[in-house]
Amino acid sequence: MTKRLKIVKIGGNIINSETALNRFLKDFSALENPKILVHGGGRKATEVSKTLGVNSLMHNGRRITDASSLEVTVMVYAGLINKKIVAALQAMQSNALGVSGADANLIQSRKRPVKEVDFGFVGDVEQVNAQMILKLLEAGLVPVFSAITHDGKGQLLNTNADTIAAELAVALAEKTAVELIYIFEKDGVLKNVQQNEVIEQLDWETYQSLKQQKVILDGMIPKLDNCFYALQNGVKKVVIGGEKLLSDSGQKYTQVVLDE
Amino acid sequence: MTKRLKIVKIGGNIINSETALNRFLKDFSALENPKILVHGGGRKATEVSKTLGVNSLMHNGRRITDASSLEVTVMVYAGLINKKIVAALQAMQSNALGVSGADANLIQSRKRPVKEVDFGFVGDVEQVNAQMILKLLEAGLVPVFSAITHDGKGQLLNTNADTIAAELAVALAEKTAVELIYIFEKDGVLKNVQQNEVIEQLDWETYQSLKQQKVILDGMIPKLDNCFYALQNGVKKVVIGGEKLLSDSGQKYTQVVLDE
Q1: Which residue of B has its CA nearest to A79?
Q2: DSSP state of A96
Q3: Do A76 and B75 touch (CB under 8 A)?
Q4: A86 vs B102: CB contact, 8 Å cut-off?
């Protein structure tokens, strides 16, 4: 592949709003191939769970996936959301192929070992089938990943979508130049929440110090860990930004870099 | 492709039972490539609909798919059932790729025109992307189709799984030798229901006369119409049989043929 591969991950803020999703997909479809989309779940899984009487158990802010939750997750992520995105992209002339990690054995994972907490049917990525993904890209397809993987022994597993995007980026970086783009509810990593001011370039040292100062905290930490993991493993460029990142060139965003 | 392509369609009788499904998938995984699996929905969609408070409307025994029913169908067929089958096949060393017709634009359909009845989001197949399916088969993949298609304008549509199998067979018959295998709840087309005796070879004339005699009726008619449609359009061989058709060589089944 001669052109840089773009891997874009979107989260609940976009998936929860039909307007935001369609606007984003229009921007995404306008990106040149090769490209990959990774999506999380959003509110729909919680809604369906509630209606079906499936309780979402949490432990320190992390979801515990029992058998019933896994069924709902697979239905909503790999079924409803994935196929809606694929149909919408097809209408925009992007030849989308919706996949989970089980499909074509693209992402194999291992059920997270039980320590103090049993997170249930949650998988940590073990292996990405980069060769098959390249074949699909070379056939002109646009893979759209839901955050479901499998263990190779018949068990589907729920996997963090940010992690999937980073693991795909790292595996594919061995074969081609990769850019990783996280799109989330803010315009980037903020200097502080009050002023809504975006850090335009975030290096490892600054990251460490902002963590100590509690400027960067909570869900932002695993996301940024994924960013640095990608950069440390051959991914060319990693950015984090808001909904309009792909379309609005005036939009501020954060580029994550290893050194200043 | 030098070897005959086998397209196998399974229905609710297999999908509703975990034991039957696993036994069948073992048989299917033992078939040589190239092969394609098409699956219907089964009881799960009805169960989920009921729990979610979505009513299944029927008209003369045919389902009417409103927006809520379509969501459930996509969740259960393209999500839960499709991914469970894919993960199980992967564990059996079959490199399954679960798809709907929207994925890679494999099957485009048209919303059924409203006449006396509005069937809702139901699609009649218009176009099969045989070239892309061949590419997937040549990559060593085993496509697993759920009975969901799209209209190319962003709308997902519910499509009869028997029809999908027949349309795939016909489109691929232009490129390679195809055998179409319907697996359902009986051992084949029966001479009469009382004796459970299987018609081993059913030709067009006999079919017409058995319809007149009301020996063949109800859901069996559209299924057999699909069989003859396939044979009339280049498919080499069409058989209908029971759960053990792929594994038990002593098992009776019906071969559908054009002439005696």
Answers
A1: B79
A2: E
A3: yes
A4: yes
Helices (H) and strands (E) in chain B, counts: 9, 14
Q: How far is CA B26 from CA A155, B21, B187, in A?
A: 16, 9, 19
Half-sphere exposure of B185 toward its Cβ, with a 13 Å CA cutoff?
11
Q: What is the pLDDT of residues A158-204, one digit of tens each?
A: 999 999 999 999 999 999 999 999 999 999 999 887 778 999 999 99
Confidence at residue A61, expressed as pLDDT on a 0 to 100 scale: 66
| Residue B219 confidence (pLDDT) | 85
How many beta carbons lie within 10 A of that of residue B45, not counting itself? 25
Interface A:B, Cβ pairs < 8 A: 123
SS3 label, residue A10: strand
Spatial separation of the C-alpha atoms in residues A98 and B179, rounded to whole Å = 27
Pair of tokens at residue A186: 């803010």
Counting every residue written for chain B, the total comes to 260
Query: How many helices, marked H, and strands, marked E, lie in chain A?
Result: 9, 14
Any idea which residue has 């194999």 for tokens? A108
ipTM: 0.95
Residues in chain A within 8 Å Cβ distance of B75: 48, 75-76, 79-80
Per-residue pLDDT reduced to its tens digit, A83-108 = 999 999 999 999 999 999 999 999 99
| CB < 8 Å to B121, chain A | none
Residues of A in contact with B54 (CB under 8 A): none
